[in-house]
Amino acid sequence: MFIRRLTLRSFRNFEEIRLEFPKGITLIKGGNAQGKTNLLEALHFLSTFKSLRAREDADMINYGAKKAYIRGEISREGRIFIIESYISEEGKSVKVDYKFRKVGEAMGKCVSILYRDEDKDIIRGEPSLRRDFLDEELSLIFPRYRDALSSFKKVLAQRNALLKMNASSGELEPWNQEFAQLSSILIKIREEFITDILPYFQSVHSQFTEGKEKTSLEYLRTTGREKEEILEDLEKAEAEEREKGMSLLGPQRDDISIKIDSMNARYFASLGQVRTLALSLRLAQLLYLKNLLGDSPVFLLDDLSSDLEEERRKRVGEILKLAEQSFVATTQRELFPLPASKELTIKKGTVLEN
User: Fold this and answer.
1) Considering the entire predicted model, what is its pTM?
2) Is the same domain home to 306 and 202?
3) pLDDT tens readout for residues 192-225
4) Of the four, 51, 187, 202, 253, which is 20 to 30 A from 224 by CA?
């Protein structure tokens, strides 16, 4: 798949732009705070329909404007999908092929993967960030996961409320049943994903390190994976959960173990190793999804910098050749050592084609 055209009005620091993109690599050049990340955010919005950085969607609206507009034309398997969204203070609306859709229904038409420097927090940060990584990735490609996650969040909130109220076991029982059923769905899909992406992750990281470092991924459960196992664990934990007033077991407490040479990368990896691990994970997503979907997702790389060694930057470029379309943002052209299909320069929200 690839994004053929993008139209933005009053989005971030862009007043109005219309761009056409080819297959292959589009290089986005410009100084800091000129709009490179804003352009990548708009492209990624066509997949996730949410902001990269803002707490509120309205923060994406250009200062002084009342609403922002995003339109993308997506070419996929011989079809063209038109994705549109208006964003205002009151919320956002989404259309696919000129028909209004719920966000969940619109997701999956355009699939993109974004790497940015903040991804190092997936490696070094709290477990919640690794769970967010799983939820974002799996919600984008598996409607069953997306639906189960939405339902699970509601059940979790209700169950926690009952625990805080010290509700009776009878009141808690139906919510335990729902909690266990939905937890089982989420855990199984997460575990399968980790198993499937692992060889891609190890292969990419081995290329970056010339086989000098060995990596592993493991899903760490706080409970069983079958409904009956989870119900048994909930029964054992009931007293402690009542005391704490919250659910202590389940996918909302699980984690991913990321190791490098048998050591927990969260605590022992250097900053350079953390960045390489995070980039390897995102590029592994690219290869995994290309195999799963039979169609390459769009890859977005924010701020390719000199922090990454030249040889590794070359290897990034070689892997990106496997994607049908990629976008690479950088402050300096020479930092990307390969030819590009298209080059853009952004200065204060103005886009120039080279």
Assistant:
1) 0.94
2) no
3) 999 999 999 999 999 999 999 999 999 999 999 9
4) 202
